[in-house]
Amino acid sequence: MFTTPFATITSKTEKKLTLSLFYLLIIGAIVLVFFNNILENNAAPYGIFSFELAGSLNKSLEILNSWSPLAKIFAGLSLGFDFLFLLIYTLFISLLIHKINKRLWLGKPFHRIGELLVWSMRITAIFDAIENAALIKLLVGSTQEYWSYIAYTFAVSKFILIIIAIIYIIFNSAFLLFKKTSKIE
Asked: Of 18, 109, 126, 127, which sees the most CB atoms within 10 A?
């Protein structure tokens, strides 16, 4: 049977893991926002996100050339830290999907969709790591066009998977809340 990696953990462990990942997510997001604020300028209005989504060597080089040597160090720190952060956010999203899926859809055919989304977060982490590696290659001086293309392709793919997962969480959370409130009345 196809199950999620969280299927065998106890409720107590699941709760502790959820809270731990939530706190780590908040701390990680604060660190990344700090790094990103230094990277924002006219060429990169969204900082590292502009770099991720540059899509061409010319645009990537324009962004890199707009950053001071200190900003480039912060870009490198941001990309390095993102290797840790990608584990945190994908595990957190996976765990939320698992929890919602277990409450709403256990024993129903729709349960498989949630399980697939849990596993898709592993793919998201791989996409994010490939994107980071490509951006690091550009940051350290590679002028190969394909690094910009690889970073763009994997960034877009990563964001699509994250958006799908978040939509799943939001709609199913609303459905769960609706189900609970309709039982109370």
From this structure: 127
Q: What is the pLDDT of residues 13-58, one digit of tens each?
A: 999 999 999 999 999 999 999 999 999 999 999 999 999 999 999 9
Judged on CB neighbours under 10 Å (0-12, 13-18, 19+), 119 is: middle
Per-residue burial over 6-18, b if 16 or more Cβ lie within 10 Å, else e, is beeeeeeeeeeeb
Express each pLDDT in 113-170 by its tens digit. 999 999 999 999 999 999 999 999 999 999 999 999 999 999 999 999 999 999 999 9
Whether residue 164 contacts residue 92, with contact meaning beta carbons closer than 8 Å, is answered with no
Scanning the chain, the segments in alpha helix (DSSP H) are: 11-39, 48-52, 57-66, 69-105, 111-139, 145-184
DSSP secondary structure letter of residue 46: T
Please report, as a single letter, which amino acid is at residue 108.
K
CB-count exposure of residue 65 (10 Å: 0-12, 13-18, 19+): exposed
Alpha carbon 78 to its chain's center: 14
